Amino acid sequence: MIRVVVAEDQWAVRSGLVMILESAPDIEVAAEAADGEQAVAAARRTGCDLVLMDVRMPRKDGIAATRELVGTGTDVLILTTFDLDEYVFGALRAGAAGFLLKNVDADGLIESVRVVARGEGMIAPAVTRRLIREFAGAPTAGAPAERADTPGDRSDPGGWERPAASALAELTPREREVLACVGEGLSNRQVARRLGITEPTAKTHVSRVLAKLGLRSRVQAAIAAQERGLAP
pTM for the whole thing? Predict the structure, then answer.
């Protein structure tokens, strides 16, 4: 059973999300939260698998809440708008497992939660190209840039260190193929089909790629693949 905390400050939207998630036989809504502080407290109290996190919330926004939760064993799936809230860049820096559009349909919402719960990253297709373009155009590590903690600052939206060419050179040919697939936004299952390997093997390769490159998420790996020309 996948246990989820739903964090959304608008009651009507939150209720709709809860209703959709609870219609799935393998998902349980462990708690609801109306702001970031409640989301962090609920995640710690319930020991949930992931938090479905709105970005703009009172008291503590979704980015600050994500930063607190990353590393505790609780994944965060960010809810954003098509226009890409600039908070989303902070979410990537904080280590969010994925980004989901608020206009997602019921089936898409449920499957996204399942994907993240399996340990994979998830980016809504409509967001992927725009998100990668934003990061690919940002200054690389070591270049002068202002802090990215403040919403609206796009000088260095990621705030993370891009892997050096030497790190990429340490990847095996298979790992480079896997990185290229991640750069296209493929899930572990899709990577397995593309490369003719099993899904657990694909997952292992992805984990090794992240470790070798010093990255925290598949989203960062996708951006690295794009920047290095490994993915279209």
Answer: 0.68
